[in-house]
Write a structure and sequence with these properties.
This protein is 37% helix and 22% strand. By secondary structure, it is of the alpha/beta class. Helix 3 packs across helix 4. The two termini are 28 Å apart.
Length: 222
């Protein structure tokens, strides 16, 4: 079952897309969007993880400014999305993630999954909120790599991602040897089938690794 729901945050009420599994939950995930809003791709991501037994919630961060933002993967969409994430800021985004995680606690341990801009938010949620996190091609993470991780961490990168050069990937490995880092023969956004850089084989392998990671990181303590 998937539906829009209301999410109360420290700076106001926003919507969130919630996907629930048809089996008892293995845990829960806060899914953090790209710069394009909670669009069809992000809703599909939530459905995929619900199919694998996780309650998945994607907060509509941009509701703080505009209702129902779903941008296209074109220059206009990129420009608008960049403006919105700059207006939002990482601190406010983390407040929303924390609010979502609090609402999901009834389903077990809560992790965070982020894509592109959301990949950096996921990393920061690990460092500052102690949440197990998976970051897909987070291009804005390098300035924060000196922050200590407080939970299991998984990074996915594309080998041909012009926004994340090899030396940046190396920095992730050097600053966080405790994290899992994987590089795929793909470009930026390889997990999104609405993008030109979509690479099915890489997306499938990344999902397999992510599910294995979540099984370990969100396993109940008993």
């Amino acid at each position: 079952m998937s539906e829009w729901m209301s999410l109360e945050t420290p700076t106001g009420r926003i919507r969130a897309w919630l996907a629930q599994p048809h089996v008892p939950p293995r845990g829960a995930l806060v899914v953090v969007q790209e710069i394009f809003g909670v669009n069809a791709h992000i809703r599909k991501v939530c459905a995929t993880f619900a199919d694998h037994g996780y309650v998945a919630m994607a907060p509509a961060f941009f509701d703080h400014f505009e209702h129902d933002v779903q941008l296209h993967y074109d220059p206009e969409g990129v420009a608008h999305g960049r403006d919105l994430v700059e207006k939002l800021g990482f601190e406010r985004a983390l407040e929303d993630v924390h609010a979502a995680a609090a609402q999901l606690q009834e389903y077990g341990k809560v992790g965070v999954m982020g894509y592109c801009w959301g990949g950096t938010v996921a990393y920061l949620a690990n460092a500052r909120l102690s949440m197990p996190a998976v970051s897909y091609y987070g291009a804005r993470t390098v300035p924060f790599l000196d922050e200590q991780l407080h939970a299991p961490m998984l990074f996915h990168f594309g080998e041909h991602d012009a926004s994340i050069p090899p030396e940046d990937v190396t920095l992730h490995r050097e600053r966080h040897p405790e994290a899992d880092v994987h590089v795929y023969p793909a470009g930026h956004g390889f997990n999104c089938d609405q993008r030109a850089d979509y690479h099915r084989a890489s997306a499938e392998q990344a999902l397999e690794r992510t599910l294995s990671f979540l099984h370990r990181a969100l396993r109940p303590a008993y």
